[in-house]
Amino acid sequence: MFKKILVTAALIALPMSVAQASEDMPDGKKIYQNNCASCHGMDGTISKFGKDLKPFPARNHRAMAQVVSRSEMRRIITYGVRGTGMRAKKYDLKPLQIEAVIDYIKTFDYKPNLANGKKRFEQVCSSCHSMDGRATTGLGATNLVYSKLNLEDIVHTLRHGRSGTLMTANEHQLSNPDINDVAHYVLSLRYKANLGNGKKLYAKHCLSCHSSPSKIKLYGNAAGKMKLADLSDQMLDLRIRHGRHIHRAGKAVEKLSSDEILDLMAYVRKNR
């Protein structure tokens, strides 16, 4: 009987505990309104006051909500951004309140504009990465067609650059919508190989010497140390275009387009 009373009391108290916990959770929208909206706008699209800030206007939160990691948002909110009007909030907000603000920002959505992304890419990025992203400029930039960076990584690179390379930060040169648009455009440059065409190209240019991609052996510095699967896309591309087999394959391989090479590579990798 006593046990039944205890169980009943616990069941009655449980809803009250849940309700109390819910009341204790910070309201991210309200905290954002009180601490962020004056510059960034309540919907994340920058207020008039935010646009007039010097030396740099406030950033568009809506365009960054889904492409910037929580950890970076947490760092920016906590410590601010030196040289801008974004001051540290670690003295005003508790850690749980900062997380609630991030939760609210993450509810924002943005539809990327690929036409603008292409335009801004050609204006800002093509001098190093080429107009088609294949980086044939000789400056050592990354071939974006082969890049395996995800969307967050592309955005981070666009905003902050890459240490030790010519890739400089663009967070003040490009707006957040521009960065989002360019990142999605860069992602669209990834090749979508045609395996059927790759098979035809292999039969035409490779089959007479290599009965199967799995039988291909590496020579030179890689001999005995690496397998075909160990080669990066860029190194495999280099070997197809300029390898020792060229004097046998002839000018035909040299005349293959970049997209045909990618199709051929995809077939080789699938059947290695």
Can you describe this structure?
- Mean pLDDT is 85; it is low at 16-21.
- The chain has 16 helices and no strands.
- The protein is mostly helical.
- The relative contact order is 0.09.
- The chain folds into 3 domains: 16-105, Cytochrome c-like domain (Cytochrome Bc1 Complex, Chain D, domain 2, Orthogonal Bundle), CATH 1.10.760.10; 114-188, Orthogonal Bundle (Cytochrome Bc1 Complex, Chain D, domain 2), CATH 1.10.760.10; 195-270, Cytochrome Bc1 Complex, Chain D, domain 2.
- The protein is elongated and about 70 Å long.
Give a short synopsis of this structure.
This protein has 272 residues and is mostly helical. Helices cover 53% and strands 0% of the residues. It has 16 helices and no strands.
The CATH architecture category of the largest domain equals Orthogonal Bundle
Q: Report the structural category.
A: mainly alpha
> What oligomeric state do these chains adopt?
single chain
Mean pLDDT, nearest integer?
A: 85
- Give the N-to-C terminal Cα separation: 72 Å
- The backbone outline, from C-alpha atoms, is elongated
Keywords for this structure?
Cytochrome Bc1 Complex, Chain D, domain 2; 53% helix; 272 residues; mainly alpha; single chain
Please describe the topology of this protein.
Layout: H1 2-24, H2 28-35, H3 37-40, H4 48-51, H5 61-64, H6 70-79, H7 95-105, H8 114-124, H9 126-129, H10 151-160, H11 176-188, H12 195-205, H13 233-242, H14 246-249, H15 251-254, H16 258-270
Helix pairs in contact: 2-7, 6-7, 8-11, 10-11, 12-16
